[in-house]
């Protein structure tokens, strides 16, 4: 295995993980956007001509709920992004470690000194 | 050359481990709750609250237990440090929840529990109109969607 092959494998691993992560986050944002819009529409409709017309306490509860759901959605996007970064890093480190194992094994380093996966987890 | 070796030798963890029991519990509680919403879809008079009281207690208790389980799991040290980074600090490092962005499900499930409690209390006090049920379901759906998406994404 030469360094060009290792770089190509690293790029492929990175592209795969970033692509999957982007797809997950994009679908999540789209779905949540629709649900939050539906929540807001329902509250407005009920306030104008429904059960919330005369129920201020419940109306304010639903507004607070909409705010909490929006904040939690933003936090979830940060978490999904962190997960994507984690997977991308680990995929690249895994390919690089595999390349190093191959090179070191070829140079005569005993196999039991070279674990299958990167040995340090931060 | 040494840095390449160090880079290759290190994997990172930026979120808690996948918890299969938590995901299964969420699926089960979600089915029970959607069934409750379906039963109440056309609205329900206050006089019928007694018929639903135990079902409310069941789903509230179940989600509360799942929220506790999600809140008590271990957060990787690197993930905890991530919350204090400049760009996300304002959103993610609140005094009450310093790991808000690396373990988001407790907060989403807290919202689920708040919505179901409010629905139960409203039903206990007055007739539940059809649009009340729709509004409660509309408040429930984004919160459970967040928890399900994030917990499934942790499988890696």
The number of helical segments of chain A is 2
Radius of gyration of chain B: 20 Å
Low-confidence stretches of chain B: none
The residue fraction in helices of chain B comes out at 55-70%
State the share of residues found in helices of chain A, binned by percent.
Answer: over 70%
Summary of the model, kept short:
With 122 residues, chain A is mostly helical.
Description:
The complex is a heterodimer of chains A (122) and B (156). Helices cover 80% and strands 2% of the residues of chain A. By secondary structure, chain A is mostly helical. Chain A has one domain. In chain A, helix 1 packs antiparallel against helix 2 (56-106). Chain A is rod-shaped and about 80 Å long. With 156 residues, chain B is mainly α. Chain B has one domain (17-73, 81-153). In chain B, 70% of the residues lie in helices and 1% in strands. Chain B has helices at residues 2-9, 20-39, 49-71, 77-82, 86-92, 105-125, 130-153, and one strand at residues 10-11. Chain B is elongated and about 75 Å long. Classes of the chains: A mainly alpha (122), B mainly alpha (156). At the A-B interface, helix 1, helix 2 and strand 1 of A face helix 1, strand 1, helix 4, helix 5 and helix 6 of B. Strand 1 of chain A pairs parallel with strand 1 (10-11) of chain B.
Provide keyphrases for this structure.
heterodimer, A: mainly alpha, 2 helices, rod-shaped, B: 156 residues, mainly alpha, 1% strand, elongated
Q: SSE layout and pairings?
A:
The complex is a heterodimer of chains A (122) and B (156).
Chain A: H1 3-49, H2 56-106, E1 120-121
Helix pairs in contact in A: 1-2
Chain B: H1 2-9, E1 10-11, H2 20-39, H3 49-71, H4 77-82, H5 86-92, H6 105-125, H7 130-153
Helix pairs in contact in B: 2-3, 2-7, 3-6, 6-7
């Amino acid at each position: 295995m030469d360094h060009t092959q290792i770089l190509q494998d690293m790029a492929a691993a990175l592209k795969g993980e970033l692509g999957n992560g982007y797809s997950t986050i994009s679908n999540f944002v789209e779905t949540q956007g629709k649900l939050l819009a539906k929540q807001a529409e329902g509250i407005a409709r009920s306030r104008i001509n429904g059960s919330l017309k005369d129920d201020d306490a419940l109306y304010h509860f639903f507004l607070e709920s909409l705010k909490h759901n929006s904040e939690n959605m933003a936090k979830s996007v940060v978490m999904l992004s962190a997960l994507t970064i984690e997977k991308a890093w680990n995929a690249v480190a895994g390919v690089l470690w595999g390349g190093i194992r191959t090179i070191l094994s070829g140079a005569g380093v005993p196999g039991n000194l070279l674990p299958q996966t990167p040995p340090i987890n931060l | 050359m040494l840095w390449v070796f160090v880079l290759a030798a290190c994997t990172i963890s930026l979120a808690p481990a996948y918890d299969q029991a938590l995901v299964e519990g969420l699926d089960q509680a979600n089915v029970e709750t959607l069934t409750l919403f379906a039963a109440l879809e056309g609205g329900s008079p206050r006089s019928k609250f007694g018929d639903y009281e135990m079902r409310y207690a069941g789903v509230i208790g179940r989600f509360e237990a799942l929220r506790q389980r999600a809140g008590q799991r271990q957060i990787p040290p690197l993930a905890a440090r991530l919350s204090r980074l400049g760009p996300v600090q304002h959103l993610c490092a609140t005094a009450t929840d310093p790991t808000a962005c690396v373990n988001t499900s407790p907060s989403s499930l807290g919202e689920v529990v708040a919505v179901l409690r409010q629905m139960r209390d409203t039903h206990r006090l007055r007739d539940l109109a059809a649009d009340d049920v729709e509004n409660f379901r509309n408040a429930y759906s984004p919160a459970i969607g967040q928890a399900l998406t994030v917990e499934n994404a942790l499988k890696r």
